[in-house]
Amino acid sequence: MNITLEINKQKTEHPSNISLMQIAMDYCLQKLEGIAVAVNGKVIPKSKLSNYTLRSGDKILIIKATQGG
């Protein structure tokens, strides 16, 4: 069974058992340093990414810190 998620404003299909940690790691190419993850407008601590239960329709925002001037 799949669920529909919106990740950074793009709708995607994923297995219903996928973890928020796996989504974040896939998006950030396995590096979780300097990122923030929010689901439905609520920031999720990195320590809870593995156990966070996703539901179809969740809106995920993944932000990477960048340097600039």
From TrEMBL:
SUPFAM superfamilies according to UniProt: MoaD/ThiS (SSF54285)
UniProt superkingdom: Bacteria
Short name of any one Pfam family annotated for the protein: ThiS
The protein, known as: Thiamine biosynthesis protein ThiS
Source species: Pseudopedobacter saltans
